[in-house]
Amino acid sequence: MASLKKALLPTQTTFLISKRFRGKINIQKPRKPHFERQLLIDLSKPFYGPPKHTIPDITLCDRGEKRFAKEIDNPFERILANECLNWFNTSKMVIFLHVNSISMEDKFPVFAALTKNNMHLRCYGKKIVSMATTGTRYEAVNHLFTSHQNILFGQPENIAKMFKIMKKAPQLVIMAGIIQDRLMSKNELVEYSQMQNIDTARSQLCAVLDSAGSHLVRQLQQGQQTLVAHLDKHVELQNTPASEPKDSAQKEPESST
């Protein structure tokens, strides 16, 4: 045992043990703090007003101060509103998106693909859009906004590419859009994206008009052609000699023998 004590380091006991209180803490009647601490406690003490159900209604009435509060003019908001209105005026395709929870790692490839195809994704708040569209032909889109929302600006010929890119990010939900000053739902946008090119539609229209014109010309010329054919046949019958049928009748038995 003595050898074991020599091998292990003995623990050193302190001669003085500090204590915060020499005796027990009196919880029922604690000691009053000194002046500076009491001053700090009084300054940091929270103040709670009386409950609203105990206050009369006349006291709760704010006389319309909150309703008629004066709004502060923010120059930066006016700059953003002018930029938003400029996007509306210069873009023939405007798509309104509802954004669910999405990280920037998932959103950045979609943003890059849209920008590469000449489509621009912007985020504006309800107040900015209201300032930009109030008094214009786009004022009806204010009902689509509740908070910050993404808007896609581009040209109608890129709508098919837009739907292909949006499939990569299901968090971006298409709500509605404006195509050439016409407000469309999502189903109408899908039908518009499936339509053929304008040049193909024009060629088909020209073919239909050409076929209708040629058919009308044939109908107008049919009576004249029939009359000419009958007249030619009548002239041919008149110019044929009367003895020719008899000769032909005599030649038939010889050929038969």
TrEMBL record:
GO CC annotations on file: ribonucleoprotein complex; ribosome
Xref: Gene3D superfamilies: 3.30.70.1730
Ribosomal protein among keywords: yes
Subunit note: Component of the mitochondrial ribosome large subunit (39S) which comprises a 16S rRNA and about 50 distinct proteins.
Compositionally biased residues, Basic and acidic residues: 244-257
Source organism phylogeny: Eukaryota, Metazoa, Ecdysozoa, Arthropoda, Hexapoda
Listed SUPFAM superfamilies: Ribosomal protein L10-like (SSF160369)
Name this polypeptide is given: Large ribosomal subunit protein uL10m
Highest taxon in the source lineage: Eukaryota
Keyword Ribonucleoprotein: yes
Protein family according to the UniProt entry: Belongs to the universal ribosomal protein uL10 family.
Keywords, alphabetical: Ribonucleoprotein, Ribosomal protein
Region (Disordered): 237-257
Transmembrane segments: none
